[in-house]
Write a sequence for this structure.
């Protein structure tokens, strides 16, 4: 079946020019760009006055962070013109190990959006992390046989690279030997340390939050992934990268983006629109999101409207406004007017399904579990910084005589991180400031990167109820007040993902949001988002793990009480 | 051993910026670019006021056309800043088959210039060619295991691609499956045929002689190799490619360049200097010759001054004039002030040496062999076009009563192409116009692409002497006059390459030139160059093969006499 796109304007991503040519498609591939006519085709699609450009590629995304299965995510992404994503299944791998990677490959097979996979490089993230699995080089390398596996995922363990840790270096070497790339993740690294990190063959970075940081990396040969997600937004800071001589070494990524945000504002398309609103060229944005993303990853035959390329094509009603009216994936229409067309969800084998659906293994909690025995000295308290993932270390005099230290007047809540993979009974316990909860408790199985059970509460009984409920439903987000579950979102897939549609997940999320704000959480705080990063001991300054508080800057466990 | 380049200006090929940074090198690699000091290094090289840039990459060259072994070629190339070449050993493969490829790999091992190999795709070039070997896909694919083999060489058989010839398609598929690229060669192809050719996954083209031809290919996704060699010179026609939005999709190549030309004018550096003299940016030229060449071939870790990259570094006394004072290859100085430093030539195994040194296998010739029995009609005569590889078909009334048709007054000479690989006794015989020889004969074993023995003469006895001498010395160029050999260049390696230095080859070549011009050859003719292409039945219009005359446009053998 030959399909002809006739009378459109083509965005040529190799040159940035607009061409007036017809495009001929057969068997999912573009076979001609030029003076083709109706007699060449079985079907003719007259797009007079419209533009066509290649489908967008999100160069770095964590599917788990959308709480959607790949197929459900695809439905909302393709509606916004994304025909490929590069996903690092780091979260599910921390819970389910290699089975998690296998699951994500299987759950993204034969859907109308290509899901490339980067192998999680740092499972567990740190030695403080009690994750569900440990992934060594020998657990990973056989995955490189998959053509959808493009390399080793964001190498957060930059100290390991700089110190030439043999386990880390072997993972890098395996990727390179397989002809694959290694994604970087080294915020704030500069100078000599950065040189050493890059020297090991790290392709790119998506953590640049300042133009100076980005330019140092770009000049040293890394591709810059301009990240604009739901939480982390670097586009405005990095806007000068849209100009030459920098733009051709940059691509666009979302990293973490919530379903409601995607549905409402868009995906990669929204980054391009925002850059355009800030005065930059739409065509430059399209180039970043297409051919340059392909180049960054060494992908051949995707990311351009050219002979031999995949017929992943967007029809645009307007180029300036990037209004996407139709999306074609390998020559088949998969979305129209912002609505994905129906497709069958992938089948998952029973073994793999079982592995990801039964990830919780922990004791039942009681209110007593959260009791802290007072000692001399101030308490190291985690201080939330609104809008950021970093936390402050605060020192508080805690009055244990009332509520065992919980003091909603001073916004001092209890926080617990409970090991939930191997039933060790390990639990870190302490205080947190900056959330604003006046009563009740919230609990979640989404807590980077080990995804243990995290509970924050103004009431120990409610904390136990919330925590037990998350365990009972195999993972999720739960809000409890006055002994009652008042909202929840079930995330049965590894405790990270729902099996529902984006619309339902967004609706559940909205309900939960309403409930937590009613319980007193400050409007500027996104409690589940903040909570999810409070246990990640690679982002400064003070974090809570199953083993207790971690001083991130010094990379050591510290006691709750200080002299 | 750590070497520091201090106080230089760095040409950053990622951005085109000039940076004032120090560069630290260890174990052949650049390990740091920045604020490094003397205490970081064992050796400090103060290059105050000088520039450094990455070593140049010639993206397409036939080593055999230089008549030098790879090591000898390296000596004159590195002196001009070329630290890597991508060579298609198409010529030696036509003579020696897979042994020829093996020989070129062995003969370029561990020399101070990286020789990447593209596998010859079209051996023999056409069905009219009686080459020394036939290379099928199964003869080639195991070579892809070599990291120096980057893909399938220039795919001249574009009709085979367009018609989806199964042998051709298998060769392409093998290259792609191995993760390698396929070089193009499709002059004048346009529109639908070009789309089909490119659709099969052809990476680039080096045959563009007009800007329109180049732009069509570039817009359709091919890399454009701007060729500027000794004979074929496309730089001036393609000069607009040095501007955006085109320059970043272009690289520089020489294709065929003679040793004297390299020694006198330079190699890739001379292309950049010429572009600069024509008003284009030296930095753009450097980018084409370095990082872009690496990108075109998917090479990692070469072509930039950046951490983790090979320390292939040029020290420039002047950027504007591209004056190269020192050349470093993997951190070792290999050339200084235009002179390569000493290195050991590679050792070749006896078997491989034997295979390439004994390539001649043909009968002894006598003057009678060149006798033509007259028939009715005019004679199809090859008409040389000065400065070009194409020929015209001329129709002459030949007077066979004198000298069996040779008529130096009308510049009608005899031409013979003698099969010399398998002793078949096949010989094509006819007439040629436009050389100017007044007496004697010239003979050569360099005759594209099959490299049979080609002889042009004003005297049949001299033709036999010249031909027999070429056979006797195992290949070469020979000039005979009055029954005596008056000049010769021995090319014992497959009849294509000398085992002498570039200086000696150039001197021999000069001697031969003097002799042939004394014999009457027109000043505007390069007789051995023209002769070498007179037997190539893929370039229009009329060519001579061992099977007789070929009408190239109609791709058929035609008789000498026409109605």
């Amino acid at each position: 079946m030959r399909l002809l796109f006739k009378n459109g304007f083509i965005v040529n991503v190799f040159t940035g020019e607009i061409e007036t040519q017809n495009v001929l498609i057969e068997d999912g591939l573009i076979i001609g760009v030029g003076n083709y006519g109706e007699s060449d085709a079985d079907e003719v699609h007259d797009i007079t006055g419209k533009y066509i450009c290649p489908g967008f590629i999100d160069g770095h995304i964590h599917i788990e962070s959308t709480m959607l299965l790949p197929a459900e995510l695809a439905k909302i992404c393709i509606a916004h013109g994304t025909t490929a994503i590069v996903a690092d299944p780091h979260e599910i791998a921390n819970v389910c190990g290699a089975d998690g990677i296998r699951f994500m490959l299987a759950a993204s097979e034969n859907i109308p959006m290509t899901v490339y996979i980067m192998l999680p490089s740092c499972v567990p993230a740190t030695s403080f992390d009690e994750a569900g699995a440990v992934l060594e080089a020998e657990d990973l390398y056989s995955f490189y046989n998959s053509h959808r596996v493009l390399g080793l995922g964001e190498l957060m363990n930059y100290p390991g690279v700089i110190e030439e840790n043999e386990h880390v270096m072997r993972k890098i070497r395996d990727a390179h030997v397989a002809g694959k790339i290694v994604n970087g993740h080294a915020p704030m690294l500069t100078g000599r340390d950065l040189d050493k990190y890059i020297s090991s063959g790290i392709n790119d970075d998506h953590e640049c939050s300042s133009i100076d940081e980005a330019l140092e990396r770009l000049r040293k040969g890394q591709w810059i992934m301009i990240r604009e997600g739901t939480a982390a937004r670097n586009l405005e800071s990095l806007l000068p990268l849209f100009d030459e001589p920098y733009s051709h070494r940059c691509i666009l990524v979302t990293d973490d983006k919530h379903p409601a945000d995607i549905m409402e504002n868009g995906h990669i398309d929204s980054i391009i629109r925002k850059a355009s609103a800030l005065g930059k060229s739409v065509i430059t944005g399209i180039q970043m999101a297409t051919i340059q993303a392909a180049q960054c990853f060494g992908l051949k035959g995707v990311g351009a409207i050219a002979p031999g390329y995949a017929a992943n094509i967007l029809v645009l009603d307007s180029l300036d406004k990037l209004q996407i009216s139709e999306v074609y994936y390998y020559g088949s229409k998969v979305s129209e007017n912002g609505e994905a067309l129906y497709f069958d969800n992938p089948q998952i084998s029973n073994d793999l399904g079982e592995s990801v659906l039964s990830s919780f293994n922990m004791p039942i909690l009681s209110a007593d579990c959260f009791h802290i025995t007072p000692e001399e000295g101030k308490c190291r308290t985690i201080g939330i910084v609104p809008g950021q993932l970093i936390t402050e270390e605060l020192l508080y005099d805690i009055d244990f005589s009332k509520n065992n230290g919980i003091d909603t007047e001073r916004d001092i809540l209890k926080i617990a991180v409970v090991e939930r993979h191997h039933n060790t009974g390990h639990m870190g316990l302490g205080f947190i400031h900056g959330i604003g909860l006046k009563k009740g408790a919230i609990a979640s199985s989404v807590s980077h990167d080990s995804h243990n059970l995290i509970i924050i509460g103004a009431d120990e009984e409610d904390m136990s109820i919330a925590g037990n409920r998350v365990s009972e439903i195999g993972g999720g987000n739960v809000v409890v007040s006055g002994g009652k579950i008042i909202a929840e979102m079930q995330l049965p897939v590894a405790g990270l993902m729902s099996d529902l549609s984006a619309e339902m997940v967004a609706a559940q999320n909205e309900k939960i949001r309403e409930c937590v704000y009613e319980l007193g959480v400050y409007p500027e705080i996104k409690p589940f988002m903040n909570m999810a990063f409070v246990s990640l001991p690679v982002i400064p300054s003070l974090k809570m793990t199953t083993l207790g508080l971690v001083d991130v800057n010094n990379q050591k466990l510290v006691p709750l009480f200080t002299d």
User: Anything to note?
Assistant: The CA atoms of residues 230 and 261 of chain A lie 7 Å apart. Chain A has a mean pLDDT of 96.
